[in-house]
Amino acid sequence: MALAKVLNMKGEKVGQIELSDAIFDVEINEHVLHMAVVQHLANKRQGTQSALTRAEVSGGGKKPWRQKGTGRARQGSIRSPQWKGGGVVFAPKPRDYSFKLNKKVKRLALKSALTAKYNDYNVFVLDELKFDAPKTKAMVDVLKNIGVNKALVVIDDNDKNVVLSARNIPAVKTASVSTINPYDILKYDAFVVTKDAVSKIEEVYA
Questions:
Q1: Inter-axis angle of helices 103-119 and 30-44, to 10 degrees?
Q2: What is the extent of the structural domain holding 55?
Q3: 40 shares a domain with 24
């Protein structure tokens, strides 16, 4: 049975929550985790890199010198790859790097990432996370109170004050239940989540 302390915004323990074993206590599948991280990074690539091949470089239509008798190596064009200003061999062209994973694979990867975080004692459950107004210092104080620095903060809804309060903190990222992914869970040291968000995660991904 997976259990976690429930903390308030001052870092004080106010209770305990039972986490779903189907999400926070599964067998970690490293291969699936690796595939999910590779897919996430591949899907983020713009794929706009481009260079000219020898067929696309302008000029070079005339043979630079005659074939024989000069004592130099034969050359057919000053736009060959070995020449300065020549074309690129197997030049990179714009392409789509993204690929798909099955839903069951993505879900297993997410559960594996959450289990790994729980096993490392890096899951922090807050009873609530609300601010009257956007204030970076308020978010910094909350994170300091619960003893984390680099954190993924998950909330059950898109609370504008929370998002704006965390936006300027370099090592902190906010996410909603529907946007969490294995890459971000593994990238950040701590997984900070509200009680309401835990319920929604268990409802959506169980």
A1: 110
A2: 50-93
A3: yes
Asked if residue 72 and residue 39 are part of one domain, the reply reads: no
Does residue 116 sit in the same domain as residue 172? yes
Q: What are phi and psi of 110, to 5 degrees?
A: -65, -45
> Is 112's pLDDT higher than 90?
yes
The residue written with tokens 């590779």 in the block is 38
Q: For the chain, where are the E strands, in sequence order?
A: 2-7, 13-19, 123-126, 151-155, 172-176, 190-194
Q: Which candidate, 160, 206, 197, 199, places its Cα nearest to that of 179?
A: 197
Q: How many domains does the chain have?
A: 2
Tokens of 37: 């991280």
Same domain membership, residue 129 and residue 30 = yes
124/178 same-domain check: yes
178 DSSP 8-state letter: G
Rounded to two decimals, what is the model's pTM? Answer: 0.83
pLDDT at 153 (0 to 100): 95
d(CA 75, CA 85): 15
